[in-house]
Amino acid sequence: MKWLGESGCGTMSGELEIVDKLMFLISSGKYSAHDRLPSENEIAGKYKVPRITARKAYERLEELGYIYKKQGKGSYVKDRSRHIELVLSGDVSFSRKMLEKGYNFQSNTIFCKEIGYNKKIYTCLENKEGDRVFKIGRLRYIDQQPIALHISYVAKSVFADIDLVGANISSMFDYYSSKGYREFSSKPSVLSVSFPTESQRKLLDCPHLIPLLVLESGCMEKMSGRVLEYTKIFYRSDCFSYVIP
Known about the structure:
It is a single chain. The protein is an alpha+beta fold. It has two domains: 67 residues, Arc Repressor Mutant, subunit A (Orthogonal Bundle), CATH 1.10.10.10; 160 residues, Chorismate lyase, CATH 3.40.1410.10. Helix content is 29%, strand content 31%. The chain is built from eight helices and eleven strands. Strands 4, 5, 6, 7, 8, 9 and 10 form a seven-stranded antiparallel sheet that branches. It has a two-stranded antiparallel sheet with strand order 1-2. A hairpin with a 2-residue loop joins strand 5 and strand 6. The radius of gyration is 22 Å and the shape is elongated. The two termini are 43 Å apart.
């Protein structure tokens, strides 16, 4: 097979050209999951670039979630088809969705903090400026790998003990049920994409080039329409495929 880029090119352009070419070959099915890719020396020879350029291209592909390495054996195509199918709805808890699908799921609460006034959050919660609002952060794991960061914003005027019990809540829906709320609906959701901050990279154990899908929404009690929480969820894009009902 003839490779592009056989004429000389700068280090950066050569690296990006290799990345683009291999991404195309993987996406088009030329290389399948767990296929071994050409060695760094082979890539360097085909592109007529220094080996360090080939190595950086492979490092970039690994950061993007396209390949993985085996010590002393080379680089292999990552299986990107084994993504978790996620229905983006707010009427069933994330925990329940994962457990019903049979995943080895865990949820750890990592903080419960009071926040200062934030117009957007307070408006979504239908709270006044003087109200107290707490944010509860939970890391979600599948097979002990962190895959999502859930942050729930809850008003103390709705849940009086949230400051006392928030750090021990693993499922907000279970907590709401314990307070007498049974049926839930979601407010209109907003989807966006961002790259992880340094703190998010540490929490989610992901490279800086893996985009995060950010879902912002609200949860209401279905009967009364009372707003229970405003939610901001950061999903690792390399772990999920998304279903929007």
